[in-house]
Each structure stands twice: as structure tokens, then as C-alpha cells.
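Model it.
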Amino acid sequence: MMKKTDESASLMRKGTFFCIAADTMFGLSSFFLRGLTVHQVSADWTLMIKELIVALASIAVLCASRKEERIFPPFKILAAIFAIAFLGETVGLRSLITSYGLIGIVLANPVIRTFTILGSILLAAIFLHERPGKYRWISMIVLVFSLFLLAFGQLGVVRGPNSFSFEIGDRNRIFLIGFFWAALAGIGYALYSILMRGILRRKKTAVDTDIDGSKTDLKSENREGSVSIFLITAIVCGYGSLSGGIVLWTQKGFSGMIDVPDPAWTIVLLAGTASFFAIWLKSLAFRYATAGKVAVFSVLQLVLGAVLGMIFYQEPSDVLIWTAIGLTVFGISLSARTE
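Modeled.
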């Protein structure tokens, strides 16, 4: 019994580590991409090049890996991988970009993350039998509150003390449409998380139990996931790069696909490299952590982005932003508690 407990605690610590490492790298990727805004490159160009870098790196690693890791998955798994690509790259990313254009990053991000966290926890409980306990629910409530507190803080800094009215007025319809696209992005990412967790989770012989009583019922032999992480990454990011390239080509032609300032190539290379490691680490997190836990830790991306923005882009801050960051750390520490 003690051996089982020690093994479970070790697996949960691995899940926590991979969640933190993955979202740190995602935060760095977003930080690099923020630098592209000064060069006014299109979102489709960024999507095409960044995802192409990740796909090519994944293919290179896959070619250098052992023969058994290059086995093509059965049709059922392959269909799930393409569904992941569609949900993550088309539904999630396209809806995210649309919501940013309508209501802005500050308001869209809390909505997206809230629907991602709630959707992941509820869908995981229904389809993967990963039932959250009280600490997971408390951490979720704390993190959702901190997300909106962070948004209020950033709005207050940018627009002044009267910003909390949201200033929608005649723009009420646009605001609601933007909210819809942000919610759709969150739902897309939640479904993406559930499929990734279903494919990659580490099979166990027993029921995992958190310190707060939450249980994960995984009835199978004790082995690692049989699908290569790098194969999934190559397919998903290759799909994203191709979709971005097609849109860009139809809008600007071939010459417009490469006509960007030279510094943009360096920045997108750094962003693509960070994304490659982020996706790899996130895939490992899905093997050792529940879909709800992985979704909760994704809030780290926003916190890291806010801190790096203050340091390197001289973005202003106030007490609400730092309070939100403190609550985020507290909420994540609650979610990380394991037996």
C-alpha cells in the first residue's frame, strides 16, 4: 500500500512539474510573439511560420527516434489527432484571434481561460472519469476570480479609473459577439485537452486519489501511452501551418507570404522554438496530470506574460494586477496538492 502511495505521489509530482514547465515555455512564446506587433506582421504569417518550425522540429526528432516510436497509429487514434488539430488550430486559435480583434486581449483572455478550465474539468469528469475534489474546485474558483481581477487591473491602468464600466454603450452587440468568440475558443481548447489527455494519459492499475478525495479511475495495464508525442505535434502543427499558409496565400499571394521585416524572422524563430518545447512538455503533462489540472495551470501563461510585459515592455501595473498574480500562485498551489 505504501509503495502504491509513493508511486502515485511521484506521478503527481511529475504532472505538476511538466504543467509548470510547459506553461512557462508557452508564456515565453507569447512574450516573443508580442514583439512581432511592432513589425505589423499578420496573424496568418505568424501561424504559418511558427507552427512550421514546430512541425519540422517534431519530424526531425521523430526520424531520429527508435523505430517503435515511428509506428503509425490506428485509424481511430489518427482521427482523434486530426480532431485535436481542428479544435486547437481552427476552432481555438481562430476564435481567439477573432475575439482579440473585437474585445481586446485583456477582456478576451479571462473568458477563454474560464471556459477552458470549466470545460476541461466537467468534460474530464464525464468522459475520462477524472472526478475533481474540493481542492480542485476551490483552486478553480480562485483562479477564475484572479483572471478577471487581472483584467480589471489592466483595464484600470490603460483606461483610467472609469474603465470598469467597460465603455460598451453602442458597442454592446460587438462586445457580445466578441464574448461569444472568446467562449468558443475556450470550449475548443477544452475539447482539445480532453482528446489529448485521452490519447496520452499514463494507464494505471488502480484509482488515483488526491489529498482532497478526488479520484481518477483508469482501468488498464501500467504502461506509457503508445502514441508518439512528436507524431501528434507534427500533425497538429503541420495542419496549423498549412491552414495559415493557405489563408495568407489567398490574401497576398506567394510574394506576400515572405515579405516581412528581417527582425520578424528572428522573433518568430524564438517563438517557434519555445512553442516546440512547450507543446512537448504539455504532452508529457497530459500523461501524468488530469485534464482539469493541466487546464488550471495554463493560467500561468497569462501571469508570466503580465510580469514580462512589465519588465521588458514597461507596461504599467497597479495593486489589482499584483493581487491577481498572488491569487494565481495560491490557486495553483492548491491544485498541485496531491496525496
